Amino acid sequence: MDYLKLLNESQAAAVMQTEGPCMIIAGAGSGKTRVLTYRIANLLEQGVDPFNILALTFTNKAAREMRARIEKVVGPEAKNLWMGTFHSIFARILRSEADKIGFPRHFTIYDTQDSKTLVSQIVKELDLDDKLYKPGMVLGRISAAKNKLISVQQYVNDPVIRQDDEAALRPKIGVIYQQYASRCFKAGAMDFDDLLFNTNVLFKDHPDVLNKYQNIFKFVMVDEYQDTNYSQYLITRKLAAKDRNICVVGDDAQSIYAFRGADIQNILNFEKDYPELQVFKLEQNYRSTKNIVRAANSVIKNNKAQLRKDVFSDNEDGTLIEVIKASSDNEEGKLVANSIYEDKMNLHLSYDDFAILYRTNAQSRAMEEALRKLNIKYKIVGGLSFYQRKEIKDLVAYLRLTVNPNDEQALRRVINYPKRGIGDTTISKLINAAEESNHTLWEVVSNANSFLATRIANPIEGFAEQIKSYAVLAAKEDAFEAAKFIAKNSGMIEELYSDKSIEGLSRYENIQELLNGIKEYVDDPEREDKSLAAFLQDIALVTDADTKDAKDEGETVTLMTIHSAKGLEFRNVYIVGMEENLFPSQMMITSRADLEEERRLFYVAITRAEKKLVLSYATSRYQWGNLRSCEKSRFLDEIDPQYVDFKFAASPNPGESTFGHVLERRSNLIPPAPRKTVAKGYTPPADFQPSDTSNLATGQRVEHPKFGYGTVTKLETQQGSTKAIIQFEEVGEKTLLLSFAKLRVLT
Ligand SMILES: Nc1ncnc2c1ncn2[C@@H]1O[C@H](COP(=O)(O)OP(=O)(O)OP(=O)(O)O)[C@@H](O)[C@H]1O
Ligand SMILES: [Mg+2]
Question: Which protein family is named in the record (predicted)?
């Protein structure tokens, strides 16, 4: 096994220890995921059937990458591994066992938006104050309950919960939970938390089913174990109860989902559950430079509730961590984009080497604008994803309804879209009729004549007939043929095609794109189930941290929230918005525990970087429509200053920091080694004044405050911005953007 050469001693020991419970709690970048990968490869090489291995990852993308790596070692057998996120694996299991818990085989998976809409509808129906019972807040309570496996019954009967809700002046949450659960059940729908909750119900109420899966999953492995919630913990514990071959890896310092119910207690419980536990320590970080690892250690040291770990790196010292100070969020974007552009050109990097991480999705706007101005391609991971767009949700609602006509949210969404003369009043009547007669909305819709006057009922029954005909078609055809037909027959294509505005055009193109995606899905030769139902399940499980990689075109800078970046690595990382109230987030911190979670988030962000880390902040930014002045984040001061270069943050004059290459350094810092890219034998004259370069021509001699003297060898203009390629005498060739470069034209 030559892959053992790719592991250090403790990693190899963890890989070779294949039987019994095993846990690795170790620092970032120490090879935990790598150990899991090779552990699986090792099991397969020893003849374990891939169908008997379950590996749970944090994102679908992580699962794909792990599978690809294992395939390199053991070949195509790796395709048969059970590998994916908790949600995708257990959705798959629930699908084949659905009837046991009273759900249809093709149950719908409600996304957050569907769940919020349903909560709003319930709040309205119950005549409650929608300002008090905001859907996000209510759902948060329901979700927390489900993740702790608190059923509706337990919720409404628990005196402590009732007191909590009463104290918060929201005594009706239990009633909403009850309604919500029964409406989901009637609609044959599960939300994300239900996928785990119902798996627990399934295993609890059906020991034979549990037994079956215990026999299938002889080896269970979990990555990012620190972020599992109670519901997930219990599922893995039950599955592993028979063979006790369970291996979990994680890092308590990277636990960042407490707000969604992740529980550090799961690590401590693990030790209690398996007294025969083997624990492996990994201390060497292979990902990052010494400076980055030490800086990260100096930050996490401030957390009190942390298991002690020493993480070290044997890599080079690397450059110091740069801090950029900008006068506004737009300037911050500009400085970050410039820095990326410069590094990419000077060091011949790929845009894939760069990531910009932020605390909240809203921060991407300024970054995107700045990147676009420099023609830098980027992709955003998470945020408003493709599948959240209105037109996509509309067509998907038709598809969902085809597969599961009881899906109430889908039905309400498209019953009168495109318009077919079914007004709001009629819809309310239908909903009431369903409530009163204890039927599902679909049952009422498909028998509208029994409830409403013929004139009103006819178009409704017509719609029901249409959906029924789609179901017949979908049973015969693959997902693509069915979806194409439905898009046309429903009138959606015509509706969007006739809208000639730019937005209308882009909506039409998005529908085309969705159909292309479905075609790709059914054309995949390895895909066994090409049905519409299978496709819908697949897209319902796209998480915030997944991108539609298939559409990626060429090199791109990656933009994402820190939460989505967990487990990933990039050569150069920018953490932007390092300001008080933004990071640490004002919304999130009300206690020391919250502050510690924000700090762990910062630790996660720092440790994504391999070679270079840049932190930026703005002294003012627009928030909620107002320009606010901002203070730099306390986290910046927590980094041991010997690892930080405040070069771009030192300027007393904010204007100067606009790519002015301010060369002063903070005097209390140890001066770092000069950067190779600076012309050493050159000092800019005190009166250096950049010239107007709009008429710059090749062959002209120029002076640059950092690079010294040079000659312009080429000029390139693209979409209004001009790049100059300049041969500098001392530092060699550089490509500079004229709108930013401070150049004095000498001849
Ligand atoms: N023994 C080793 N020799 C060389 N490179 C290694 C070794 N172990 C790990 N690496 C590399 O170090 C990097 C970090 O490894 P990995 O992602 O497995 O760490 P991790 O502990 O899972 O990190 P995180 O906590 O961020 O999830 C990867 O690029 C990996 O390939
Ligand atoms: Mg990892």
Answer: Belongs to the helicase family. UvrD subfamily.
